[in-house]
Amino acid sequence: MLELAIKGNKTYWTWIVALLGVIGAGFIFYLWQLQFGLGITGMSRDVSWGFYIANFTYLVGVAAGGVMVVLPYYLHDYKAYGRVTILGEFLAIAALIMCLLFIIVDLGQPMRGFNVLIYPTLNSVLFYDAMVLNGYLLINLIVGWNVLEAERNGVHYQKWLKPIIYLSIPFAVSIHTVTAFLYCGLPGRGFWLTAILAPRFLSSAFAAGPALLVLLCLFIRNTTKFDPGKEQIQSLGKTVAYAICINVFFFLCEVFVAFYSNIPEHMDHIKYLFVGLHGHGAMVPWMWSSMALMVIGIILTVNPVTRRNETTLAVACAVIIAGTWIDKALGMIAGGFVPNPLHEVNEYAPTFPEIVITIGVYAIGALVLTVLYKMAVGVKEEVEQG
Amino acid sequence: MERSRREFLKIAGASAAIGLGARPVIEAVAAATGHQAAPEAQVAHHPEALKATRWGMVVDTRKIESAEQIEKMVEACHQEHNVPMLEEERHRIKWIWETHFHNAFPSQSTDRVSEHLEHILLPVMCNHCENPPCVRACPTKATFKRESDGIVMMDFHRCIGCRFCMAACPYGSRSFNFRDPQPFIKEVNLKYPRRMKGVVEKCNFCEERLALGQMPACVEASKGAIVFGDLTDPDSEVRHVLRENFTIRRKQNLGTEPCVYYIV
Question: Which site among B83, B88, B89, B90 would you substitute to test the A interface, given the most A Cβ atoms closer than 10 Å to its Cβ?
């Protein structure tokens, strides 16, 4: 099926070449990082994870969000999603590849990465995270590829795929749960030390993943002969509406617990994010923007008039993607590490090389997604034209 | 003629080199298959090595009079362990450093702390916890608790630099080599390894000194402000000091069971 991805018009190839250019730039900066060390980033002794792990966390959510089309189709036999499940699965593949790349660019000694497999350590959450992320990637590759090929050949997909498809549903939940456990099992970090962190991650994932899918569906409709469908986009919109409401609700639960209990270790991180602490408030404008964006997203997706209008729905999805990204990527890392265990405030901001490397990883994800979607849309067009 | 002779010599030389190189391999295989008794790897033990079941430390802040006193401890430690002095604050490596009471004990500090505590600084370092969260987090066992004496140690050659241990440590005791530390080491101590960029490091209770029968560098430099010994031995000096004084530990409520105690 890959041959479908090498047949494209001029715009397609321009896009591919542009992505390769961005990837090249990111790679050059990565070589610099390899040579110098992680000192070229803005990370420090106190904020020891930064932009890479932040984006990793966010993209695990996008990958898990794909399950919001797989589950209704395969478990509830919601036929309409038959047209878009492949888009959800392929989005998960691209997101997972970015996740794994973000982990690799974050390692101080990437050439020793295989030590995780050579010395499997069952008490480390990172070991399980590596297992479930790679497992979910493999499942989506197997399922996505085979189901699409069966569709192309006009036959039903192989019977043995069914259990793997069912397995993909708990796996999607597991990748984000285990990723939340990386954070919430650490004793000294009041901001992360909350049993609701995994549910929070999942709710923001189920908002951000489907929101991105809505935008991709609209893009596909406007640029190809394949229409993912009005009903499908509307259903995704409802999923986004519920998930973003739950996400904001969960956040307010956190605020209540921290401030009504009045325990400093839990309050100080939220204070740092929203009002600043000891005169440091780099995150304040970001966090309020995030809240505003998510609230706008709620208004636009919950209100049936603005949800049904695809233009306002697209705006809603874009603001939800931005809002959840600030909340989960930037806020989660900055809020967790500031103040530090000695209650000192040392802020973090990514550096230029760090941002270029990050954009490079996103470009690799975009390239993978482009190729996979080109294939998927190509097959759909073939099938529909008969 | 000339040419072929040279070629012959080349081939002969190469064969000899391969032959020589292969010899230890052949011997090793022979030994492994039982043709010859394999020599067991042995670690030599110093006759005066200090041993304990659980090493621990008591910092007597009453005996700390000035910042210079702590600086001497820091200097002794950092010199012993080839800790670099980096210009940029955010890249600094710290095994032991000085801090205020309210930073070392954020939940125990009050607005009305004793005058002595208000004015002095305390030395802080790895607590060598009984239940170390860093060891729990490490995905490669590069950081581990030594079973024989409870010291939380690092294998600098196994660490992949994921920094999960740094997020896990509730005391901020771990540092990461954000760049090559070697140009920033003032005087190299050849008795202790230097690190490369991209790995985590921290205090090791001077396990390399204990193995030679010496007390940790900070203890020696502390002029009696730090007592070090076996926490499981009721007759040890640390136990004696712990019996005689009221002591506190950092973030006691987290269940990590630090082995560094403070008299305040």
Answer: B90
Averaged pLDDT for residues B232-242: 96
Instruction: Kindly tell me if the per-residue pLDDT of B57 is higher than 80.
Output: yes
- Measured CA to CA, the distance from residue B67 to residue B70 in angstroms comes to 5
User: Which of the 8 DSSP states describes residue B262?
Assistant: E
Q: How many Å lie between the alpha carbon of A187 and the closest alpha carbon of chain B?
A: 6
How far apart, in whole angstroms, are the C-alpha atoms of residue A25 and residue A97?
A: 19
* SS3 category, A12: helix
Residue B1: other Cβ atoms inside 10 A: 5
Residue the block writes with tokens 């990565």: A30
Residue B20, pLDDT > 90, answer: no
CATH class of the domain at B65-221: alpha beta
- Across the range B121-135, mean pLDDT stands at 97
Give the residue carrying structure tokens 């402000």. Answer: B225
**Minimal C-alpha gap between A118 and chain B (Å):** 8
What are the domain boundaries of chain B? 1-42, 65-221
pLDDT, one tens digit per residue, over B25-56 is: 555 555 555 555 556 777 788 989 999 999 99
Q: What is the 3-state secondary structure (H, E, C) of A240-295?
A: HHHHHHHHHHHHHHHHHHHHHHCCHHHHHHHHHHHCCECCECCCHHHHHHHHHHHH
Question: CATH fold of A2-385, please?
Answer: Formate dehydrogenase/DMSO reductase fold (1.20.1630)
Query: Helix A125-153 crosses helix A161-184 at what angle (to 10 degrees)?
Result: 150
Chain B nearest C-alpha distance from A152 (Å) = 42
Tokens representing A99 are 């996740």
DSSP 8-state class, residue A338: S
Q: What's the start-to-end Cα distance of chain A, in Å?
A: 17
Pairing of strands B152-154, B175-176: unpaired
| Residue owning tokens 């939340």 | A180
pLDDT of amino acid B32:
55
- State both tokens at A231: 């009903």
Residue B107: per-residue pLDDT: 86
For chain A, give every domain's residue range. Answer: 2-385
- ipTM field: 0.92
- For B216-258, the three-class secondary structure string (H helix, E strand, C coil) is CHHHHHCCCCEEEEECCCCCCHHHHHHHHCCCECCCHHHCCCC
Asked if A346's CB is within 8 angstroms of B90's CB, the reply is yes
What is the H or E stretch that residue A183 is in?
Answer: helix A161-184
A134 touches chain B (CB under 8 A): no
B156-170 per-position pLDDT tens digit: 999 999 999 999 999
Confidence of residue B1 (pLDDT cuts 50, 70, 90): very low
Longest dimension (CA), chain A: 67
Cis omega (within 30 of 0) for bond into A339: yes
C-alpha dihedral over A88, A89, A94, A99, to 10 degrees? 100
Smallest Cβ distance to A48: which of B158, B176, B199? B176
